[in-house]
Amino acid sequence: MAEQRPPAPAGPRLPGRLTAELIMRSPQYMSCIKFYEIDLRGNKIAAIENLGATQNQFDSIDLSDNAIVRVDGFPKLLRLKQLLLNNNRVARIARGLEEFIPSLETLILTNNRINNLQDIDPLATLSKLEHLSLHGNPVMTKPNYRLYVISKLPRLKVLDFKKVKQKERDAAKALFSSEEAQTAHASNTFEPDEDLAAAKQQAGVANGGAEQGAGAMEEDAAASSAAAAATSAPSQEQMVAIKAAIANAQTLEEIQRLEEALKTGHLPSEIRVDGGQAGAGGEANGGKPDGMEVG
Length: 295
Hints:
This protein is of the alpha/beta class. The chain has two domains: about 20-190, Leucine-rich repeat, LRR (right-handed beta-alpha superhelix); about 230-295, no CATH class. The protein has eight helices and ten strands. The strands form two sheets. It has an eight-stranded mixed sheet, covered by helices on one side. Strand 1 (about 30) and strand 2 form a beta hairpin. Helix 7 (about 235-245) packs antiparallel against helix 8. The protein is elongated, with a radius of gyration of 35 Å. The N and C termini lie far apart (about 110 Å).
């Protein structure tokens, strides 16, 4: 059994960073499965970096209970067989991992944030991967999740701590017999963190939900009617009434509002074409300046 190394002299420790100093003073030991392992648990590490400081001396690296969001950032660790990443925030797995950790046999991603089936596709190039755990990730709720993973990782022996059976391999092969079938199935999975409001808008669904359906239809109908009225040409009587109101308007704002009404033919509420009041800018004598009665 290898002896545990004496702790290195304490160096500067950067919160949330996987530094060479942290690597040098972290516990290193022979695990119960005879893997030489380094314990980097619970250091609030946000990204995998500086693992070159391990000098490719470990069979297992334990990065559990940190804040890692992406599986990437590895140097060439040809000896690494086991990677423990449970209880992090992993949502993405980088492509090309086979170049840096080609001997990886076990990957534990329990209790992370992997959402979609296609998110596990980069693992397909790890030819020696036999043990995988995605337990506690949202991806587990996707239809045919287990069969999809088995179809992508044909060498897998244990998935989510359950042995992969031959009948599962046969079912996976039958269901995902082609790359097109895999792509279609993966793209049809719902992503929980996508913008629900945007999805509803694209689907033509009101944000208020089903209970507002009738009201929304009525409002749409009213808006359509108003739009139709607005685009119709004003009648002769309407034009006379609006022009008279413009002539007697007291402010620029009122003139602009009335000119807009002249364009649309939609009379403001204070203007009538049947002999009533014709504008807020009327004279003091009853608010009926000359020319405002047209009917």
